[in-house]
Specification:
- This protein has helices at 2-5, 72-79, 83-101, 120-130, 136-143, 198-206, 214-223, 229-234, 259-262, and strands at 15-26, 30-38, 49-50, 53-55, 67-68, 106-107, 146-148, 152-159, 168-176, 190-196, 241-242, 245-249, 252-256, 268-269.
- By secondary structure, it is of the alpha+beta class.
- It has one domain: Nucleoside Triphosphate Pyrophosphohydrolase (Alpha-Beta Complex), CATH 3.90.79.10.
- The strands form three sheets. Strands 1, 2, 3, 4, 8, 9, 10 and 11 form an eight-stranded mixed sheet that branches.
- A hairpin with a 3-residue loop joins strand 1 and strand 2.
- Helix 2 packs across helix 3 (83-101).
Length: 271
């Protein structure tokens, strides 16, 4: 951290990444978000509760992907990205969500969605995406599926602090779990999954029961202001860019949130 401050080191380049907050309406508890707890052996955010997501794969932007919904340039305007990066982000969002939860935002036509992704053939496809032996375009093309970009909504944008050794430029999406589909505890990067009310998750994080990085905590706090999936998807959002700052405070490393967020959310120890 001191080397960056003194100009003796350059920060690592932040990798483009996509995160999807999967939502559902529970008949008793109301709005819930799907979360995974990262295994303790992970190099980045071990033990933290997160949403499905990950880095862009270079093949995510393949032009032959069947596409329904807002064009890449629309997503580019929402996320301040060029058309190429915007296409990659949407495709990464769909791919990572399937890899980490079994939820697939795609269907046989532009107005339909796959209703069940369980079974050995789907699992074989999921693993082939994970080990990169097939691309998202190959997967969808072979199954005759169209990516449903219209099921996603842009939500927020977070950039990892300059002081971190692993840095991500992450765009957050929200989406409802499609009718008929079920999440599966399939991610090798997670040891626990749960559907949680956003307000409950925030409170548990503040009590120290759930470990979370600032982007997750702040996003849940925002979602706690909505009472249904429909309300979230209908929200008119101007995507803001947030980048915490790494500081040494009383000899300890801390992540300090931007001023417009710091009033409502505590600072978090770095690492």
């Amino acid at each position: 951290m001191e080397a960056l401050r003194d100009g003796r080191a350059e920060p690592p380049v932040a990798r483009d990444a996509a995160t999807v907050v999967l939502l559902r309406d529970h008949p008793v508890e109301g709005l819930q978000a799907y979360m995974l707890r990262r295994v303790a052996s992970m190099a980045f955010a071990p033990g933290a509760y997160v949403f499905p997501g990950g880095s862009v794969d270079p093949r995510d932007g393949d032009a032959e992907i069947g596409w329904a919904g807002p064009a890449p340039e629309v997503w580019g305007r929402a996320f301040a990205a060029d058309d190429k990066v915007a296409r990659e982000l949407v495709c990464a969002a769909v791919r990572e969500t399937f890899e980490e939860s079994l939820v697939l935002l795609a269907g046989p036509t532009a107005d339909s969605v796959v209703d069940d992704t369980r079974g050995p053939e789907w699992e074989a496809d999921r693993k082939a995406l994970l080990d990169r032996s097939q691309s998202l375009a190959e997967f969808l093309g072979r199954r005759g599926l169209v990516l449903r970009a219209d099921l996603l909504r842009p939500w927020t944008h977070w950039i990892t602090p300059l002081a971190e050794t692993r840095r991500y430029d992450t765009r957050f999406f929200v989406a409802a779990i499609p009718a008929g589909q079920q999440t599966g505890d399939v991610s090798t990067e997670a040891d626990r999954v749960a559907w949680l009310r956003p307000a409950d998750a925030v409170e548990r994080a503040r009590r120290g029961e759930l470990a979370m990085l600032p982007p997750t905590l702040v996003t849940l706090g925002e979602l706690a202001g909505y009472d249904s999936v429909a309300a979230v998807l209908a929200a008119e959002r101007e995507v803001q860019v947030h980048q915490p700052e790494g500081r040494i405070i009383d000899g300890e490393p801390w992540l300090v949130l931007p001023d417009h967020l710091a009033e409502n959310y505590p600072n978090y120890p770095n690492g």
